[in-house]
Specification:
14 helices; Rossmann fold; seven-stranded parallel β-sheet; 365 residues; 2 domains
Length: 365
């Protein structure tokens, strides 16, 4: 039996990283050849945001919220105890920064380590030493998984890894029942943590050029985060409080996707954004910054949405205005969302993961 553990900062969070990790884990555990668990540094919420299969065990390195880097050696020791006690054969770090705790375990435990990159090689959000862990992973990990071919090439060009680098996309889940696009909707949605990465400060500037021209329209931002106070002030200064609304963390995302007219992504950087795959699955036209990796893999410009130059706020506003003003264009783009979805098929992606996991087990034999 393959004993796999996904290592997370906190698997109860509502982010895209946690979402895709739970999706893959839930599929793997359906196969009797796999025993699957989650290990988190801690769990801040009472229950996970995303439903985890009851056959999957969850473990925590610390019983309460604890920042591992401040207790580095104790964190490594605690993680080693869990890996040893649970007989984990392969540890999948769902954030590359966690490699700093996993890689030291290899010699003492024999565990195989997969570094799963959810941003891209050139981005180090919030943690400058992420650069060091990537170089460390290139030398010591057993495999690196990127979300795009573009990021795979960035790894190969910048660090010449000693381990295989494999591009495996995030999967797109098909909602049930099949979504029916609402051409009459006057709601725009955006989603993500309220952080610098997601660029909602840029989105507010774009909204200031859209919403006053269309008083019947509403723009909802779904998600929570540390930038909320700053964004609230920015929205108030732009006098958009009645139309641009911070909804906070919502558990019924399905309802919002089904009632929306379009999805807008304003991120400064991404890996392969789950929110765009979800928007595509719900047949929503998309307007997105063409940041380095991710959106261009999902949005076929002028077919199922618009890619605008990275950080170009007037261009973002222009394309949103264009869709707001043209219901027929929204409908046509919605119909085109079903094109080019094969590479995001869940079954195909799980097969790619199984091939990687099987190859690592064979190496250990």
């Amino acid at each position: 039996m393959h004993n796999i553990a996904f290592f997370s900062g906190d698997i109860t969070r509502s982010g895209g990283t946690e979402n895709v990790s739970v999706m893959i884990a839930n599929e793997l555990v359906k196969d009797p050849d796999y025993r699957v668990s989650f290990i988190s540094l801690f769990e801040a919420a009472d229950k996970p945001f995303f439903d985890i299969d009851e056959r999957i065990d969850r473990h925590t390195v610390y019983p309460t919220v604890t920042h591992g880097i401040q207790h580095y050696f104790d964190t490594c020791r605690r993680l080693r105890s869990i890996v040893t006690e649970q007989h984990v054969g392969i540890l999948i770090d769902i954030d590359g920064i966690l490699d700093m705790y996993s890689l030291p375990l290899k010699k003492r435990t024999g565990v195989k380590v997969i570094s799963w990159e959810h941003f891209n090689y050139l981005q180090n959000p919030g943690v400058p030493y992420r650069k060091l862990t990537r170089r460390w992973a290139a030398r010591k990990a057993d495999a690196i998984v990127t979300l795009t071919e573009a990021d795979k090439h960035l790894y190969e060009e910048n660090v010449d890894p000693d381990c295989p680098v494999i591009a495996i996309a995030n999967p797109m889940r098909n909602p049930e029942p099949e979504p029916v696009y609402d051409q009459t909707s006057t709601t725009i949605i955006s989603s993500g943590r309220l952080t610098y990465q997601k660029g909602f400060d840029l989105l507010v500037q774009a909204a200031a050029d859209v919403l006053p021209k269309h008083p019947e329209w509403t723009w909802l931002i779904l998600g929570e985060g540390e930038d909320r106070p700053k964004l609230e002030e920015q929205i108030k200064a732009a006098e958009l409080q009645d139309q641009l609304i911070l909804k906070g963390r919502v558990e019924n995302m399905d309802e919002y996707y089904r009632k929306a007219a379009m999805f807008v992504l304003s991120s400064r950087f991404e890996g392969l954004p789950m929110v765009l795959l979800e928007a595509k699955a719900y047949h929503l036209p998309i307007v997105s910054f063409d940041c380095l990796t991710g959106p261009a893999e999902i949005v076929n410009d002028s077919m199922n949405g618009y890619l605008v130059p990275d950080g170009d706020i007037p261009a973002l506003a222009e394309r949103v205005n264009e869709l707001v003003d043209n219901a027929d264009l929204r409908r046509d783009m919605s119909e085109n969302t079903v094109l080019y979805t094969g590479k995001f098929n869940l079954a195909n992606i799980v097969d790619m993961w199984k091939q990687l996991l099987t190859s690592l087990y064979r190496e250990a034999e």
